[in-house]
């Protein structure tokens, strides 16, 4: 019998793991955020949207919301036109929309330490960020467990090198090995040290939010 000749394979110059490693050694180009080229799909028509807003206004006007142990918030809401009954706040119909239209911009820029990574929020822009507030982490060596500051730092680094993440996040995980009274400072410092992308500061208490602002002032040279 005549033997059927086997097809010859062309040798790759750089294949396998070594080739993939070499290909991945270069800088990965990434955009600071995504600008959508296709229009949004309108799930509801104007009548449906008006119905949702009308029902929301009814709940806010007739039932209201309790703001417990927040006297400063009650004072601000009263000055804004809300009706205060103890800790219950009721919003006259249309008040929330008027406040939003008067004070909330349709788009704004979130600035990063590296200006090339500034992101534009709103409009046709899409910004991808890591998950927020995960109480547990998981890896192949230790399994599911409470997170540490080292885990938090590693997640910030991963978000920094990922071309698909436009921000380095906020509280990506909760580093329980750091005392609560200083935990927010370590997290903000990790975002600043291990990434030059924009990030979300601490918002769990007014003083922690102020600490974030003061830290950024130091980073920006007191501006």
C-alpha Rg (nearest Å): 25 Å
Describe the largest sheet. Answer: 3 strands, antiparallel
**Secondary-structure element string:** HEHEHEEHEEEEEHHH
Structural classification: alpha+beta
Number of helices: 7
| Total number of strands | 9
Number of domains: 2
This entry's quaternary arrangement is single chain
Helix content: 25-40%
Distance between the termini: 86 Å
> In terms of per-residue confidence, which ranges show pLDDT below 50 for 5 or more consecutive residues?
none
Overall geometry: globular
Q: Report the average pLDDT across residues.
A: 89
Strand order of the largest sheet: 2-4-3
Report the portion of residues in β strands.
5-15%
TL;DR?
It is built from 7 helices and 9 strands; from the N terminus they run αβαβαββαβββββααα. It has helices spanning 16-23, 46-62, 71-79, 95-103, 149-161, 180-194, 206-219; strands at residues 34-35, 65-66, 83-85, 88-90, 107-110, 119-122, 125-126, 136-139, 143-146.
